[in-house]
Amino acid sequence: MLPVRHVAPATILRSLSSRRLINNIAAGHHRLRLPSSRLPLHHPVQLRHYARFTQDVPLEHVAAESKPKPPRERFNEANRARFLCPVPTCKYATHGFTAKTSLKRHVEALHGKEREYTLGELLKKIDAIPNMRMRRQPASSSETEIDATSEPWTQLDPPQESSPLTSILEAQESNERPKTTRRRRKVVDLEPQPVADTDAAPKPSPQTVPPPEEEAPTTISTLGQLLGALDDEVPSKPRTRRKRVTDTEAPPEVEHSSQASHQLSNTSEEQPPPAAQAKKRAGRPPKSTSKPIGTPPEQTPAKRRGRQPSDKPPQPEITADCVNTMHLQDALLHTCVWGRPEDITYQKARVLKRDMMRHADPKRVNIVSEKLCDDVLEYMKPGLLERHKGCDIIDISPGAGLWSRKLNDLLQPRRHVLVEEDYKLYEPFLKPLVEREGTKVIEPAWVIWKDLFEALGQEGVLPDQRVRMYEPHETPERNDSLLVVINMMSHARRKAKAKKMGTLPGMILYQLISSVKMQGLFQKYGLVRMLIWVDDSEKSQFLPKTVQRRKAAGIQAELVTEWIHEVAGTDGEPSKTYAYRRDNHINMEGMGTVLARMKEGGYKVPEGRESALMKSYLMLEKEGQVRTAGEQSPALATKFNLVQEELDKLKVTKKKEGTWSQRDHQEYLRNRWLTTQTVKHQTALGDWLAKLDELTELKLQVEAAEKENKRGTIARKRFETLQAELEKNWEDLDQPSRLRYLVARDNLRAFKRPAAVGPVLMWDRRQLEPLKVQPEEFYPACEGALLDIQPRALESLLRAKCEEGSRMYDQLDLIIRNMFLQPSAPIGPVAEGLWVGAGEGVLGKMRSIHDPALGGTPLKGLMGELNLRTLSRAQLVEFAEKWQQWPFKPTFSELVGRLGEAEAESAEGVNAVTGAGSILD
């Protein structure tokens, strides 16, 4: 069989205008499928222009099109009439209005002041226009009877007659093909032979006229016959949208074979056909009905245009049992605070929302996944149940109450205080929990701390908790009899009004962490553990996962907390920006250490909650490919690793199919070049870090020889040579290479510490791996995280009182904020910039800065010295101790003034050490 060349109607002229295609058709190599005869063929001159090449070409291989559908019936509707403007020059003289009143308003507004036409005459002409009436015509007739009117602007366009081209194509059909939908086009495979008209005569019916007798077969032999028919072709009007058939109108395809059905069809206004047949789509066979003919159809309500009623079962109402059902999300939706459900009308939803918004916050997020609550509490059970069984719980913003109820079931608290500002909205959800013994609800605006603690201090709310104020020489103790639970998730970022405070949840989280050192807020009851649900974007400033993210807020959190664990969170990349990622070998080695701690502590990750990092480590461990950080070149995270693997597979596939283009090849070469450059950078970084370790060993040998009064000539000479080489190479490095080196060096130093000291980042000291959470487990859907914060007691040195009524932790806070304006600069020049003489008077006396056994380094300069973002908590406490002992330290007021000057310099973009703050920060 010859191959079929399917040419769409929109491209038929472009295809036929190719001489090569016409020659192939003439040679019999293709069979061309003509476009449908009922579709318009515009500009037939273009087709005749190429007829000279194929004047005598037989078209035996041309596949004919099926017979066009009979014209549809036109039905009587008042809105189908068009009242045209009687002014010939008006644009509404050709397409008018559907109502006579609209035409009158148009004439009065636009033509009332014209000189050629008086307004009275125009209105009389309009009043003389009778309303158009159309009667249903028999199915066999293609014309529509219209109550004629004498005015030309009230006539409808008569139906167009079939063109000569349509009759020629109809003569080629041998069998009547089934009707197809508008979106699908079928190709009929015909053998190269004359096509005869073998249409069978249709069965006689009361509504149709018997067709003529069967005619002789017709054969098309030349293209000129088709081109001649094109001369008489009348351009047809564009296809319009099919009129929607209502229940009172019957489609033209409905035919009845009995005399009773014929009588019913003649009286369709009194007895409408079934609705199932009236809604049948064009081109499909009529659906069979089980009801007898003549049975009146069931009355169905009219459907609104647009959104259709859903097939879902009716959703439950907001009742007291909603919290115990799987329809919690649907019940929240039925409050109309977050949207309108399908089974509630717009007017009713508007009233409900207006009433609810008076005492509801639409930006709040609720936990709606019962499995998430069960998995998280089962995961935390080893460290949560044994400490807080039977404690008091302060539950702030419980919302729908699913998380609060699950926590109540596990801990069996002595008292459970629900702090819900929007209690009127969530009362049906919280009612099962409120009815339990020991549960109490208070409704203050908890963001205002004064109102919250006044409500908590009322009689009978927390009778067993007392305020504990400790002196500087006393050590605060943990209070495991109290647990604070807060939900601060929001699906829209709320900016705080305070300057430089970021978002409102971030500001509240900062206040909760900072209250530990001042023994304020909940920490006045002791060191109280806090479980806080926050947005996933808020955790990075208090729980950084790389040294690039370690800012002043993260260091202050490390000073006052024993741990900050991310119990559950969104399983995404550590950072969307590649500049904030670190060596993948560090992540893998850290993951192995965390799994060992989890096994020792009895923590087990529920099935399906494994993070991507955990899956990667288990896969590499199974294959025996886990590498130790620092023993090989860093594995930098780039954008091109996965892309290159995908392009390699795509190249093989496309080359087999023959679709590999020049553009694909250029993209492939570009990614391969970028991958090669990344490997070169990794190799260069590995060499730099190896030479840095060698330089550190040589420096230690030189210092040991000096202590023993030995010369150490060989080690000193090698040290000086290597140091000069590195300094020369450092000067030749460009800015991106320097930045990559500093990031790789600082991340490795922060992770590879002696076992007695441990890693710098709290993330690398975590006891458990976060569980994977999906955004759909919250409503409205968002990326949330659960933070477990355990405060710690500050050293007595930091709680000591200083001059002017301040404490040492206040001064250390100012020092950290000042020095962290240049986080990647060496610690020595930054200390000198803080106050003159601090580099020698404070840092010179710190052992942990220079001793590698305590996390220090003996090297100096920008290339090898420690910077502030790699200082551990122990080193910061020692810095505060030496600062307190330094006799030339500034007063508290002078330190505050210096911080203001440093912030002004930082705002101008000037680095006090290098003069170009963007290079290192």
UniProtKB/TrEMBL annotation:
Region of interest: Disordered: 133-319
Listed Polar residues bias regions: 257-270
A GO cellular-component term linked to this record: mitochondrial DNA-directed RNA polymerase complex
InterPro entries the UniProt entry points to: KsgA/Erm, rRNA_Ade_diMease-like_C, SAM-dependent_MTases_sf
Superkingdom assignment: Eukaryota
Gene Ontology biological process terms, A to Z: methylation; transcription initiation at mitochondrial promoter
A single MF term (Gene Ontology): RNA binding
Function summary: Mitochondrial transcription factor that confers selective promoter recognition on the core subunit of the yeast mitochondrial RNA polymerase. Interacts with DNA in a non-specific manner.
Protein's name in the database: Mitochondrial transcription factor 1
Organism taxonomic ancestry: Eukaryota, Fungi, Dikarya, Ascomycota, Pezizomycotina
